[in-house]
Amino acid sequence: MKMHLNAAFCLLPLLAVLSKGTVMVNLTEEVRQYIVTQNKSGDIVSFGLTDDYWKQGEHPSGEYPISVHVESLKCASTDDGDQVGVRYPKCEEDLGLFITHGLQAPFDLNTTFKFPLIGQRTSKETTEAKINLNNERMIFESFDTLRGTPNWKDCNFIARVVFSGYFAYHKRGPDEGLEDGQDYSAPVTVLANSTRNLIQEGDTLVYNITGSYTQTLCL
User: Fold this and answer.
1) 186-206: per-residue pLDDT in tens?
2) 18 three-state secondary structure
3) Number of H helices, E strands in the chain
4) Distance CA 20, CA 11 (A)
5) Signal peptide location in the record (predicted)?
6) pTM for this predicted structure
7) Given a cut of 70, is residue 124 above it in pLDDT?
8) CA dihedral in degrees (90, 151, 118, 124; nearest 10)?
């Protein structure tokens, strides 16, 4: 993405965030580690988290493959201060996300929210932003180019990712063949691990994607 000088200025307060990097939890790797603990006999030959893998096997009624819902991204805390530039004939309204705790999964992690997230445009209009947070560290999105004075705001953001359902794995049979093997499943909640910020809430597994959000409005 093309970076403008006025946009670069608004990123300066976030350099401290960027210098710390992103803690990225890999959901597939979490499942892999669980499978290792269940595979003392060495009979587990495959596993999967997706709907396609689930459909290859046979599972008890009432169980279903993993589904995911990402709640609307929102500000957890807001900096009340503004940064204001000089008036430009071409001022670009945009946003940036700088993720400190991210998530990698074999699913789209789409969140939708109304831009601007903080304050209002001069026109009072909003734009629906849809962003896939999967395996991302930085995201930039541009909207309108207007005549106006750039106004920058930022906040710490949170987007709750909620998983429900089961992942599956397959054990070979006594004759060492896949055909006479058996399918097994485990609820996604078995992956709960507070040190990885994977939290069980009832029959769901929750992970909070967090970081810093910055926006430019042309006022």
Assistant:
1) 999 999 999 999 999 999 999
2) helix
3) 4, 14
4) 15
5) 1-21
6) 0.85
7) yes
8) -50
97 close to 139: Cβ distance less than 8 angstroms: yes
The whole-angstrom separation of Cα 4 and Cα 27 is 36
129-159 pLDDT, tens per residue?
999 999 999 999 999 888 889 999 999 999 9
Q: What is the pLDDT of residue 20?
A: 64
- How far is residue 174's CA from residue 1's CA, in Å, rounded to a whole number? 55
Three-state SS at 10: helix
Rounded to whole angstroms, the Cα distance separating 48 from 65 reads 10
Residue 156 to residues 72, 101, 211, 216: CA-CA distances in angstroms? 14, 12, 6, 15
Retrieve residue 69's tokens: 């819902």
Q: Are 181 and 58 in contact (CB under 8 A)?
A: no
